[in-house]
Design goal:
two-stranded antiparallel sheet; alpha+beta; homotetramer; 3 helices
Chain lengths: 135, 135, 135, 135
């Protein structure tokens, strides 16, 4: 058994026996979804494309370190960065400009989830787009 | 249909059709688990019981506002607050002293989950303790 | 020399010799002003007075642990909590609803500073209200 | 008067009349020092040089948007990233591995400040290295 498998075997004992691969993949992905928002909300941003893309990449690279995250894409929407009416000319990461798509995978289950600001709800909704299960 | 039901009906259309109540309860609870850690890590704390309990209550009251969170209990472990070797005499919230237990409920599913620092893993593990489904 | 004085004596050696008590009092207070905002921005809040006052107290008690903070008052403005148009019915701490007043003291200097959302600037301004120096 | 000058002229009226350029430069720099720590503490990191340098750059680029910050350098120390004893193999940004050097400038005053983990103090000290004033 590799060191990873050993650690996971120990960790697994803390989970209820009824917890399936599907449950676990959802669990791990959703933790990261909540984590991204609450870690980075409030970070200063500007309309400078370089600033925005550097931050997007940093969020992707750091948050994909979390367990069982297969892929993560972060977009900060230029057009939703509040046009600064003042000349300090910066805004901040928040629910209206941040969107996240991630894929978590545990065992045979792969879950696609997302956070996006939804106009009709006026709310940054987190939702599960798709659950895939291998046979 | 109440205003809440209407909002939820709209929100639900963004979720894949295969997403069950159980999936959703896990999803909502895990978001909050990740959110608590990344929102409050770094908050200054001391061994003063009053400071600690005020912060515990604030985390509980604010984070239980998140959707579908039925209950949340937060403990910051006095004994794991690093004994300050310096006289500024404070420490900060982190994975070693923070533990969270929460219950999320969606439809007929109720999920108990937890974050605790696990000695044998030397890691603040987040795990699903129990999943309950009403008939 | 007390343990605190010893620590401070050591810490002081890292500061430039030109740094006065006044400089230091401003420095310590401003660190905490920046810290409060970036620590708590994004925390869920509702219009429930109990939730709001519990969070205000927790911010005050934890952030006043920072070095040389004599006093800190935090207000989260009910009226500026965005009226939730959705029934998840909560909002979050941000620059428009959070205000902070603090007093830092180092040696003979005491500095009063504040963060408030200023209507005419459409900006949560941090500013020094008053600097007092004992003879 | 440019738009920036106009905004600053208005903002300045909130500051006490006794506040000098030197006071203001210290104030603005220290806000950002406190902000960086409390914004990014808890962000997952690994020993992968690419992850670390991407995050360093993102912190530099975003936090230098804050008012009157002339320059900011962020280092996350590889050697102080806790060797993961577990195979999830990541750690997080904290006071022991993060160091920040910044220069703030207001009017004729330029202030160099720093946050570094200081071994002999066992503490991530924030300090003013140097204050420069033009004639």
């Amino acid at each position: 058994m590799s060191e990873i498998e050993e650690f996971e075997a120990k960790a697994k004992r803390y989970f209820g026996k009824e917890v399936t691969d599907r449950d676990r993949a959802i669990f791990e992905g959703a933790i990261t979804l909540g984590a991204v928002y609450h870690q980075f909300v409030g970070t200063p941003i500007s309309k400078d494309a370089k600033v925005v893309s550097t931050l997007e990449k940093a969020i992707e690279k750091t948050m994909s370190l979390q367990p069982y995250i297969e892929k993560i894409e972060v977009k900060i929407d230029f057009n939703k960065i509040r046009e600064a009416s003042h000349p300090y000319d910066y805004s901040e990461v928040g629910g209206r400009n941040l969107s996240i798509r991630l894929v978590s995978k545990y065992g045979k289950s792969r879950v696609h989830m997302e956070m996006s600001y939804i106009q009709e709800l006026d709310y940054p909704l987190m939702f599960i787009e798709k659950i895939e299960e291998e046979d």
